[in-house]
Amino acid sequence: MPFDGTQKPRAINIRLLDLMIETLGENGERWIKYRFDDGNACCLLGAYHRVKHKLGRRGYGESVLQIINQALRDSRTRVHDIVHFNDHSETVFAHVRGLLHYARGLAAGSFPEAPDFGGIKPEPAVPLPIFLAIEHKPSRERGMN
Fold it and tell me: What is the full per-residue pLDDT of the chain (145 aa) written as tens digits?
């Protein structure tokens, strides 16, 4: 019986990755950026959590995130974080699907060729706004002593 504790971890990881692909849609029809889950679509990490919740089992597939992170490290990208990869301005669903298929190959114990996401590099940090319009008054003028 699936996920009843009799399957080996490798088979569980493969099944979880398959379900993640299914959750996002083969063509990304249920994949989103910049949000975890909006009820209709979800990001890469949101798909993992949906699958885990759907299966209702804790402790299964924890290594799937490690496998996906390994797949990111193997790919020719300098973005090694699932969330940043998903939300990167240059990431398209073909990248996400390719990453999950590659991770599936790693989970199966095969050594497929790593995907080439060479154009995806860390994006510069967005500077926080500096509020220069704040009036500076001496403390006694602000009512402070």
Answer: 444 454 577 888 999 999 999 999 989 999 999 999 999 999 999 999 999 888 876 666 778 999 999 999 888 787 888 999 999 999 999 999 999 999 999 999 887 777 777 666 666 554 444 444 444 444 455 454 4
φ/ψ of residue 42, rounded to 5: -150, 165
* Burial category of 11 from C-beta neighbours within 10 Å (exposed 0-12, middle 13-18, buried 19 and up): middle
CB contact set of 114 (below 8 Å; sequence gap of 6+): 71, 74, 75, 76, 102
pTM score, two decimals?
Answer: 0.74
- What the block records as the tokens of 98 is 């390719």
Residue of 103, 124, 128 whose CA lies nearest to 14 = 103
